[in-house]
Amino acid sequence: MLDKLLGSGSYESFDMRCMVTGQFAVGKSSLVKLLVGDNVPEGRQPTDGISLIEGRCGLDLETRSWIMVDPATYNALDVVYNKVLMTSVEGNESEQTKTQKKQPVDRQKKDDTHPPMSEATKSKVFPVNLSDEPTTQPQAAHVLSPKMSSSESKRQQMKKKMTTKMTKEEIRKRMEKVLKSGKYKMKVGRLIFWDFGGQYVYYTTHQTFMTFRALFLVVFDGSKKLNEEVPDVLCFPGQHMTPTPAVFLLHWVNSILTYCKVVYAGIPKILFVATHKDKIPVEDVETRRALLYSEVEELFRDHEGRNHLVLDKQIFVNATDKADQEIEDLKEAITELTFDHPCWGERMPNAWVPLELEIAELVAAGKQILSLEEVEELNTISKVSVLDLEQLHEFLHFQHSLGKIVYIDTEQLRDYVIINPLLMVEVMRSFVTDKVFWPKKKSMQEIFRRMSDSGIICRGDMYSIWDQKDFRAILPYKEFIFNILIHLDILAEQRRYDIATGMRLPVENYFVPCMVTERNTTSFMVKECKPERAICLAFVFKGTVIPPALPNRLISACLSMWNVKQYKGRQLLFSGFIGLSFDKSHDIVVCVEGNKILLYIVHRTSSGLIVPDIATGVKECLVTTMERISDFYHSTIHAKSSEKSPFHVEYSCSEMQCFISEKEALLEKGWVCEKHNYKDRNWLVWNQDKKQEQCEPNCPGRLVFTHNLDNIFCIFEIRKFNFKDSETYRETELKATQM
User: Fold this and answer.
1) Which CA distances in Å does 364 have to 79, 171, 357, 361, 475?
2) From CA 57, how far away is CA 129, in angstroms rounded?
3) Torsion angle defined by CA atoms of residues 97, 102, 103 and 104, in that order, rounded to the nearest 10 degrees
4) Rounded to 5°, angle at Cα 667 from 663 and 672
5) 267: how many CB neighbours lie within 10 A of its CB?
6) Given this model, what pLDDT does residue 314 score?
7) Which residues make beta-bridge pairs with 11?
8) Residue 491: what pLDDT?
9) In 3-state terms, what secondary structure has residue 540?
10) Which neighbouring-strand residues pair with 143?
11) Which of 149, 238, 516, 658 has the most CB within a 10 Å radius?
């Protein structure tokens, strides 16, 4: 489908996202300011969530020099025209003739008698700034325009029939205006800087925005040794090592490579940048540089993602000094890596341009979200190019993969399109934020304190947060936003059922695991989760540090399926740890330990009485859930979910100390644990034979009911649905209990 559209005419897209990551307080924001030509303010200015800076600089495509842009000249409406005008390539005429009947855009092209530009003209005229991802200022007050969020304005908009503004004649006139403008002299690609806040609380939300279509800068404090302890900070969940710069470097590299699926070998590239050179005596700078990068080299010597790492640049900057020559060296490195990136100059279909322009104008006017019907109408009424339904969905999926929109094609979410992705940055920042950024109002402080202590926020409190001036534009779409946050496992519904009737109770509370920082200090693992009562398996990840986003989102998914266990008056919900009640006899524990996520099934009396169906179902559920979480980050139309998983499964012996890989276990008829010197078959409990899917006819738990199914199930079989589709399970079990 995409190839057909490209054959009808295309343009080259020159955009690069530079994602600046790293530990907190290492100078990331200062570095970005220097790169875009801003002054660096005195004192530390921590970043709340993500700061996005675009339209400020670009790269001359011929000379490869950096072009700085005056913010006052940044135009969010003309940039797509400019891009297409300067790089448009007509498709093969015979191919156009063949596809005229199927491709409305071809018919429009045939009718267009406006002469193409000469090659000479193309080489002389080009905008200083390019942007096919237009946005307004990054401040929340501007991004979430109050004018567009009022109920009255929304009602008025919905009453009006949407009409096209982009006729072919108007496109021609605007393009002529671009040509006549004296400002547009160069052919420039665009650089967009994403400045990621370094506090731990943000690590679950950052990964949502990571993509292989980017260049990553991992920043660290060069005035400190890599093994020097970072004071006043907890290490990552399940990590018993001392928090050091090396741990944070490992975290960021592992996060990037976990959440950016490899579509091209060695892409994305990760460039290390050391800061705080000004704290080192001038005569010692080169010695320090050599030491730092030898430590980085050693840290990643055997790392599986080593081919993604740029280790030969050895950049060491003073991120407060515009005159530092190494800032220019960093720019040269960014330029080189950008031009080498396979997505730089990627061809895009001309047929998409009219709809891109319509969306760009709405974003520039402050619109954040469109219904799918509104998008379809924008497309249908176009006088330039109309995409058929299949092409429109291809457009939405591809634009999502580029990070220009947010479109999640699931039953609950496909009715809306977020046309300004900055909205999601603001949504997450509204409640997932570091303590230093908590609102000053006393009632708001109390909401955030409760959420931090318990990991729970109620619906009413969330509405109160969104009723603040900066976030009021979220309220008209609150149900849609809630569903997105649940889909991303940022929020987890605290589902409750009436004990007497089995009826599902309204959801009022939501878990926010990434806001929980307290560690497990209970005696549950020592006194209850013992070898004689439990079995264990491990999901083993590459590297030494698991990105916190993954276990946090796994915990969220678990919370939506099972209830948190109460133990000695405390809920077993902690940072990187959760205990869950499956039934009266079985409990589930999920926790992080090093580079493993451990799964335990704990029986009330004996591990020998653990029901294999339950163990198998829980295991399959969590495998599917983790693959789903990983696939969301990897989701592009180029990267398929069948690619290699970032983890593998290992089974423990009966003492829960030794592990064997799933591949080895399935080849062995009986595994002999060498350390404990006995044959172990616990792994079989995790892999129950699935041939028999129904209870015997005389099963006392059999419940007959109708659920658009021809088969008859018992309550235990219904529970198994939970492992594949928690919503279907709850609805099905509810129907069963009502009979």
Assistant:
1) 12, 17, 10, 5, 20
2) 7
3) 110
4) 100
5) 19
6) 94
7) 348
8) 80
9) strand
10) none
11) 516
Give strand pairing partners of 650.
538, 661
Question: Which residue from 573, 312, 422, 483 is spatially nearest to 51, judged by alpha carbons?
Answer: 422
**Cα gap 10→19, rounded to integer Å:** 27
Local confidence band at 172 (pLDDT 50, 70, 90 cut-offs): low
Outline where 411-561 has alpha helix (H).
422-431, 442-454, 459-466, 478-487, 524-527, 549-559
Burial label for 738, CB within 10 Å (0-12, 13-18, 19+), is exposed
DSSP code of 209? G
Give the per-residue pLDDT at 204.
58
CA 481 from centroid of its chain's CA atoms = 15
Which residue stretches of 470-529 are H helix?
Answer: 478-487, 524-527
State the amino acid at position 515 in one-letter form: M
In this predicted model, what pLDDT tens digit does every residue of 178-232 receive, in sequence order?
Answer: 545 544 344 788 888 888 765 554 555 656 677 898 999 999 999 998 988 877 5
Q: What is the maximum alpha-carbon separation in the chain?
A: 86
Peptide bond preceding 268 in cis form (omega within 30 of 0):
yes
Most trustworthy range by pLDDT among 53-57, 271-275, 549-553 = 271-275
C-alpha closest to that of 86 among 387, 350, 357, 399: 350
Under 8 Å between Cβ of 587 and 579: yes
DSSP 314-377: EEE--TT-TT-HHHHHHHHHHHHHHHHSTTTTEEEEGGGHHHHHHHHHHHHTT--EEEHHHHHH
pLDDT at residue number 518: 78
b/e per residue, 538-560, with b = 16+ CB within 10 A?
bbbbebbbbbbbbbbbbbbbbbb
pLDDT of residue 90: 46
CA distance 340 to 85: 24
The pLDDT mean for the chain works out to: 74
> What is the β-pairing status of strands 309-316 and 66-68?
unpaired
CB-based contact 455:511 (threshold 8 Å): yes
User: How many of the other CB atoms lie within 10 Å of CB of 641?
Assistant: 13
Compute the distance between CA of residue 540 and CA of residue 233 in angstroms, rounded to an integer. 25
Mean local confidence (pLDDT), 656-680: 70
Q: State whether residue 157 is helix, strand or coil.
A: helix
CA atoms within 13 A on the CB side of 643: 20
Amino acid at 525: M
CB 14 within 8 A of CB 342: no
Neighbours of 212 (CB within 10 A): 25
Average pLDDT over residues 517-541: 89
